[in-house]
Amino acid sequence: MKEFKNVTVIKKANIYFAGKVTSRTIIFPDSTKKTLGIMMPGKYEFSTDEKEKMEITAGKLTVQLLGSKEWKEIKGGEYFYVPAKSKFKLKVLEVTDYCCSYIK
Q1: How far is 64 from 93, CA to CA, in rounded Å?
Q2: Helix (H), strand (E) at residue 47
Q3: Distance CA 13, CA 36 (A)
Q4: With contact defined as beta carbons under 8 Å apart, do 49 and 84 qualify?
Q5: CA–CA distances in Å: residue 12 to residues 26, 41, 55, 68
Q6: In this predicted model, what pLDDT tens digit does every residue of 20-67 receive, in sequence order?
Q7: pTM of the model
Q8: Contacts of 49 (CB under 8 A, 6+ apart)
Q9: How far is the C-alpha of 42 from the C-alpha of 21, rounded, in Å?
Q10: Angle subtended at Cα 82 by Cα 28 and Cα 10, rounded to the nearest 5 degrees
């Protein structure tokens, strides 16, 4: 999907890690939401309440899910899932564009 139609965009940015990770929240007519953002190179750890699908639209990173010792490389055009009530670590290797879908 290259574009979203009939959505509400929250103007206030979500800013993390001193501005190295930013996103905007998109809300759909059925109340589901996504965030669209950019991550600068660096190491980050996030926690989740809901299950998430992280689609990497451009860039490259490695991800380590909670409980795993393995780091998996993800690049533009690929995605990964994060379980609800979990944490994950990222090593962003180059500027990365992403879309995060929250799954209930």
Answers
A1: 14
A2: strand 42-48
A3: 10
A4: yes
A5: 11, 23, 22, 34
A6: 999 999 999 999 999 999 999 999 999 999 999 999 999 999 999 999
A7: 0.92
A8: 84, 85
A9: 9
A10: 30
**Tokens, residue 92:** 């962003």
Joined together, the tokens standing for residue 54 give 């992280």
Distance between CA atoms of residues 88 and 83, nearest Å: 9
Domains of the chain: 36-103 (2.60.120.10)
The answer to whether the beta carbons of residues 65 and 93 sit under 8 Å apart is no
| Bridge partners, 55 (sequence order) | 79, 99
CA distance 18 to 12: 16
When the pLDDT of each residue in the chain is averaged and rounded to a whole number, the result is 96
